[in-house]
Automatic annotation (TrEMBL), chains A, B:
This is PLP-dependent aminotransferase family protein. Belongs to the class-I pyridoxal-phosphate-dependent aminotransferase family. Homodimer. Its cofactor is pyridoxal 5'-phosphate. One of its GO terms (biological process) is alpha-amino acid metabolic process. The keyword Ion transport does not apply. The keyword Ribonucleoprotein does not apply. Residues 51-398 form the Aminotransferase class I/classII large domain. GO terms for molecular function: pyridoxal phosphate binding; transaminase activity. InterPro entries: Aminotransferase_I/II_large, Class-I_PLP-dep_aminotransf, PyrdxlP-dep_Trfase, PyrdxlP-dep_Trfase_major, PyrdxlP-dep_Trfase_small. Keywords: Aminotransferase, Pyridoxal phosphate, Transferase.
């Protein structure tokens, strides 16, 4: 036997699947390694703030869970997820007007995996889908990985524009290639910061039903409205035509990687098999931990605390943008983690990013949120993680960067010279 | 707006992807719901026995983890997995002769998900692969889901037969459709119960290297040899040509859903992106829990206890088979969870299964472990979960069922009547 560690490297490139060839290592990864240094104010990541959780009480609660029920918590579970937790999930969804059975809930390794599995169920390579413009970067990664043909639908301050949706769906139908689904984040949009108005919700549902267009209603932030208002889910308007995706990451904590999909029977049946195939079962340790938290703690009171915290951070963001970046425009979120900032002509937020990081502030450029290269005149500010004083300082540094960027543009652009 | 819950059901069948159409709900699921009743001795499932874990000490250890480091444990993590746990994993693998860097380890939501992601990286629909005959049912589910063309390679008591592997690889090459990889469980095979001999390991690696055939070396049971012997991994024989899959499910507990893949640089780079796309990151709560367990407990001493327990159960299984089913043959495992039982001609273990469940014993029929319908003359006995006295009683009930089955065959078969 002669194959030893000294043999030449083997190249597997030609063996990769077309999906693997499609997977791109993020160009900004190295940059974000720099941006994670403590002196950099990161307005980039969407990490929730967990410092306000009652960690000692939670720890004691987990101790009694594992001491009393550890052999269950550390065993394999069912592929659809722990039934008592699925019941608790239906209670949570009822806050938004959803009347669901636990039999239609599938628990997944985070709602990201629910999105991955649902995409697997509907997409053959090249299939067209409709998504908002802009859209959640993690969803675009999934759609890209499954080789979807992504068509963006315009939004305004009230969210997805019904007429644009109808036009896009009609155009694809006329081309003989109807879209497989619409992916939408109706509440406190990532990255847009806008919320779909209540008036538009039935319109969106009606348009999709008319086009036999499945809706993926992704709602990780729904409970985090700053004034406590709960927007009604679209799911009850057409339970047979909507898959609702939910997450514990923002209302509790992301570290357990537990999310869920509520889907019609026919889709749930496939989804459970897809889930079992991919991961056998969700983590029972995680499911029982979350189930225990929901049972033993005032989880909704905790959500109220989160809301107040994020409201303060959003207000600090709005004030700092008004003070430091008056030449920009931005959305005015009423909940969630994000605002979407538009820069005057000439600014490319991708080109500006390394210089922003030099100035010790990080963000995500708008192009990350489009499948078609648009968005270089936008950036996303996530105000969820840094405290208010850091947000103000971060936006001040962003304004310094913007002024430098304008100077740079003025020096290199003949048009500016002659103006 | 008129789409109400009273509208007729919507049918999404035509919208499903070809992968989804391929996903089959297991026909035996309803049967196994019956088989999970407490009066049934289940020799079916591969659930490890966790009752011997020091649950109270583990619970206290998790309490200090969450009280002290909860904001980290409950936050998002990195897509490749928690670096200190990746270091600990390299220490574990070194027991089998693997000299790896944590940079080549990707932590996944169980080793099942590692297998799913690796398959995603290499398989386009219709691509041929080589697997053992028989093979792990969960791997076959993944391969079926990705629409692999599965080619079985024969095994004997020493595991995979090198000549059969060489022939199968050559035949596919000659047909212009080389196999994408070989999937193998070298140690304490599931379902076969046999172990690849040490003499054959370099042969297998050499054959695969010669055919430019990637090896997936799946090793969930490797530390569970009854006499404590550690078989050398194949990975060190060709680190650039082997992906090694590892799991905490059998050496600790499956409830955290944490496994890993050790892969060459080029494949790791893609695997991390695929992992991030599918689940964003593994569960930090699970990663830190396992990392804490490995650090604070005599985990290898615990593995020794598991070994002794499973050895006793395997011995009880062998004795009961000898006593009750002398007309059958079976494999003689030196570790792990399973033995593979062969029945005399005429017996179909699928047809026998409902009658076995009536007699209060359950198993998995051999056909589950083949992609091509073979295996109805085999069944798998998993002796890992029931205590020894239950195993004996279960095999006695299996023998009763077998005798009834022979009577039934004699009554319906003219050949038997005239004999």
């Amino acid at each position: 036997m002669t194959v030893a560690s000294g043999t030449p490297r083997v190249d597997w490139t030609d063996s990769f699947s077309s999906r693997a060839k499609n997977l791109q290592v993020s160009e900004t990864r190295a940059l974000f390694a720099v941006a994670s240094r403590p002196e950099v104010v990161s307005l980039a990541g969407g990490m929730p703030n967990l410092k306000d959780l009652p960690l000692h009480q939670i720890a004691r609660s987990f101790e009694s869970l594992f001491a009393g029920d550890g052999a269950t918590a550390m065993q394999y579970g069912g592929g659809q997820g722990f039934e008592p937790l699925r019941e608790q999930i239906t209670d949570i969804m009822s806050l938004e007007g959803i009347n669901a059975s636990a039999a239609n809930v599938t628990i997944t390794a985070g709602s990201q995996h629910a999105l991955d599995l649902v995409t697997q169920l509907f997409i053959d390579p090249g299939d067209p889908i409709l998504v908002e413009a802009p859209s959640y970067v993690g969803a675009l990664s999934v759609f890209h990985s499954y080789q979807c043909e992504v068509h963006h639908v315009l939004m305004d301050d009230e969210g997805l524009i019904p007429e644009s949706l109808d036009e896009a769906a009609t155009a694809l139908e006329k081309a003989g290639r109807p879209a497989k689904f619409l992916y939408t984040v109706p509440n406190f949009h990532n990255p847009g910061g806008m919320t779909l108005s209540e008036a538009r919700r039935p319109e969106i549902v009606e348009i999709c039903a008319r086009h036999h267009l499945l809706i993926l209603e992704d709602n990780p932030y729904g409970l985090l409205g700053f004034d406590g208002h709960l927007y009604p889910a679209m799911q009850p308007l057409n339970p047979d035509g909507i898959i609702y995706l939910g997450s514990f990451s923002k209302m509790f904590a992301p570290g357990f990687r537990i999310g869920w999909a509520l889907a019609p029977d026919q889709i749930t049946e496939k989804l459970v098999v897809a889930n079992e195939t991919a991961i056998l079962s969700p983590s029972m340790a995680a499911e029982l931990s979350i189930s225990t938290y929901l049972r033993d703690f005032d989880w909704y009171g905790q959500v109220d605390k989160f809301r107040v915290m994020y409201r303060g951070r959003a207000r600090a963001t709005m004030e700092a943008l008004t003070k430091y970046l008056p030449e920009c425009t931005w959305t005015h979120p009423v909940g969630g983690f994000y605002t979407w900032v538009h820069f005057p002509p000439g600014i490319n937020t991708n080109e500006m990013l390394p210089r922003a990081v030099e100035n010790l502030v990080a963000y995500v450029s708008g192009t990350a949120f489009y499948a078609d290269g648009r968005g270089a005149d936008y950036l996303r500010i996530a105000y969820c993680y840094p405290p208010e004083e850091e947000i103000r300082e971060g936006i001040r540094r962003l304004a310094v960067t913007y002024e430098q960027e304008k100077d740079l543009l003025a020096r290199v652009s003949p048009a500016s010279k002659t103006a």
